[in-house]
Amino acid sequence: MFNLSEEEIERYSRHIILPEVGGGGQQKLKQSSVLVIGAGGLGSPALLYLTAAGVGRIGVIEDDVVDLTNLQRQVLHATPDVGKAKAKSASETMQRLNPHVEIDIHQHRLTKNNIFDIIESYDVIVDGVDNFPTRYLLNDACVMKNKTLVEGGILRFMGLIMSIRGGDTACYRCVFEEPPPPGTVPSCAEAGVLGAVAGVVGTLQATEVLKILTGIGKPLYNRLLQFDAEELRFHEVKAKRNPGCPVCGKKPSITELVEYDYACETQAPKP
Amino acid sequence: MLKTRNDRTRPRLGLNLSVQGKKQAYSGPPDVRSLLEALGENSTYVNVRINGEVLDRRDFEKISLHEGDRIDFLYFMGGGIV
Hints:
The complex is a heterodimer. Chain A contains ten helices and eight strands. In chain A, helix 4 (43-53) runs parallel beside helix 10 (195-214). The relative contact order of chain A is 0.15. By secondary structure, chain A is an alpha/beta fold. Helices cover 33% and strands 17% of the residues of chain A. Chain A has an eight-stranded mixed sheet with strand order 3-2-1-4-5-6-7-8, with helices on both faces. By secondary structure, chain B is mainly beta. Chain B has one domain (15-74): Ubiquitin-like (UB roll), CATH 3.10.20.30. Helix content of chain B is 9%, strand content 30%. Chain B contains one helix and six strands. Chain B has one helix at residues 32-38, and strands at 2-3, 15-19, 22-26, 46-50, 53-54, 70-75. In chain B, strands 1-3-2-6-4-5 form a six-stranded mixed sheet, with helices on one face.
């Protein structure tokens, strides 16, 4: 039922020739579904590689519009797309790259009211969000629904990657318990980001997804990988499930989803 | 003040630490906040782990450093809007 056509076998031949992937692994990718939150700096490379790799169904959540300042790193979009909805621009690029991929577009923001319904039908979720409130919401939802999440973050010349099997391996809150107070961590808009750093991190996220879907190698579970482009160094930090974690610990204080305020809240609002 | 391992001017009372996987001699005040300052790290957007344990960010001044401590900085990287 998920047999590959002649054209697909040729298209994916450099995958299929890898003994670790083979025809079976390529069929697994075709049967899989991945949701990428954000079609920006991280989402662009992640979506391009997942599309090229032949993941059967790819969801994109994005409600923003392509801006000229995005084009320095958001490689899904091109100059004629400025002013266009990013979701539309992303889907056009992906469709051109690989028409075998089914693309679901979700043109709205993730909220505590819609997140469970949206993530439910996907095998793996990729975090390419541009803010802390959604990052924590996504982590908590994936822990509560035992979903696999591939985290990524970038700032200036640095990047971070971590894979999470919700409810099983260390989650984002096990390491970063609460969001930093608003205004303390500069945004990419304020502090800048080297465009290619987004490419490195988003591509590593796609690599993790492809490994997880095909069962190849060891995912970055219980490990946090930090990338420093200035020194060109990777630094791995072991992360353990934190028994005191507010969402996946022994006595979680967060049992319902919380949405942090974008403006000036420092404490989690009541669920 | 950071000194390299081979720096002959290193005070005898300095600590040998492992910071981000690199050996580093440190001779400033032996608390986490001072180390962050000496290394030019902004304590508002970095979490710190010593020997595998994540510290409470409010306690950086109170937590003292010891010879041989393994220190990791975990940076908050959120993307766009905060």
